[in-house]
């Protein structure tokens, strides 16, 4: 007996529905993953307490490809470990290099690029090269990239820095710190030695790495179309950036076309978690990626939108008249001009820059306690902006 056509159609639809449910459970779409990773009810417990594995998707491993240091057919892509450092920081830097070589770079042999506003000593070159099989490059920062631009008023700098000192703002009176912040904000990627380099991993002296990382992080960034990777997410001192957000709003009013559709504006302007910060910073939550660790695509910083933004800020003078840091500048630019899905939390990279940690729950890690965020006085717990980031952007 033949089955009626409507019944056959209904049966087919039921079968398709079952197949769709099975596919959804086993293969959720990226957009659903992103939405599902948002902690709508806040961060009830640290996600790093959960078992932590590697990122999903294609990963390049040293045992599967040629990463030998002198290979002309190497699987390495156009990337470097980037360090702004002084000769006198050599001892601290060597310890950091040993950490990162042991946990990651001894497998992949990516080159190190050291930058300094003074020539590197022969001792510095000898001792750093002894730590790694990879190539090391020693570069001098051009004076025009380092010193104050000619539109900055030295007398106004003195007066404004004095006000910051009286407010007990750290490094307020150190010209080198202001210069460093400006250089890291808008100059590092313009150095001639990096002209043909696309990806960088920023490394600083005195930081620690705790976990074995067994995949090529630069290939991960490239293959998964990531622009920026971070480990730690903090609040900034609002007194150091009082005019940064107003200047940003002024720039946005002139260039609304640069605002990304899937931006992170809610994270940048939240006034619930630390309302006093938002008020003092004139509308900015002060949340930022702690940029002493960052893995980034320099094409973003070389883009028209970022260059225009940096030039606007540079002309405003806040790197010298206030104490604008590269961390909030990078973070605001990424939060406004880049698609949120292109920013990645490297939860599996164990990291410490005193006094904060990114410490995952993984058998690949040793030397730090999973989920530990800070070491020191309890007030440091308030500086954690991850709850806001996970709420508005997600844990991806």
SSE topology:
Blueprint: H1 5-26, H2 30-36, E1 79-84, H3 90-108, E2 112-116, H4 122-129, E3 136-140, H5 143-146, H6 154-166, H7 175-186, E4 199-202, E5 208-209, H8 217-223, E6 228-230, E7 233-235, H9 244-254, H10 265-269, H11 275-280, E8 287-289, E9 294-297, H12 298-301, H13 304-316, H14 318-321, H15 326-337, E10 343-345, E11 351-353, E12 356-358, H16 386-392
Parallel strand pairs: 1-2, 1-4, 2-3, 6-10
Antiparallel strand pairs: 4-9, 5-11, 6-9, 7-8, 11-12
Helix pairs in contact: 7-15, 9-13
In N-to-C order, the SSE pattern is HHEHEHEHHHEEHEEHHHEEHHHHEEEH
CATH C-level category? Alpha Beta
Give the neighbour order of strands across the main sheet. Answer: 3-2-1-4-9-6-10
Which homologous superfamily in CATH is the superfamily? Spore Coat Polysaccharide Biosynthesis Protein SpsA, Chain A
Low-confidence stretches: 12-36
By secondary-structure content and strand pairing, the structural class works out as alpha/beta
CATH overall fold name: Spore Coat Polysaccharide Biosynthesis Protein SpsA, Chain A
Q: Count of DSSP E strands?
A: 12
Largest sheet: 7 strands, mixed
Please supply descriptive tags for the structure shown above.
transmembrane, transferase, alpha-1,2-mannosyltransferase activity, globular, glycosyltransferase, Spore Coat Polysaccharide Biosynthesis Protein SpsA, Chain A
Task: Give a verbal description of the structure.
This protein is an alpha/beta fold and 396 residues long. It has helices at 5-26, 30-36, 90-108, 122-129, 143-146, 154-166, 175-186, 217-223, 244-254, 265-269, 275-280, 298-301, 304-316, 318-321, 326-337, 386-392; strands at 79-84, 112-116, 136-140, 199-202, 208-209, 228-230, 233-235, 287-289, 294-297, 343-345, 351-353, 356-358. It has a 7-stranded mixed sheet with strand order 3-2-1-4-9-6-10. The chain has a 3-stranded antiparallel sheet with strand order 5-11-12. The protein has a two-stranded antiparallel sheet with strand order 7-8. Helix 3 links the parallel strand 1 (79-84) and strand 2. Helix 7 (175-186) packs parallel to helix 15 (326-337) and helix 9 (244-254) packs across helix 13 (304-316). The protein starts with a helix and ends with a helix. Mean pLDDT is 92; it is low at 12-36. Keywords: Glycosyltransferase, Membrane, Transferase, Transmembrane, Transmembrane helix. Belongs to the glycosyltransferase 15 family. One of its GO terms (biological process) is protein N-linked glycosylation. It holds the Pfam family Glyco_transf_15.
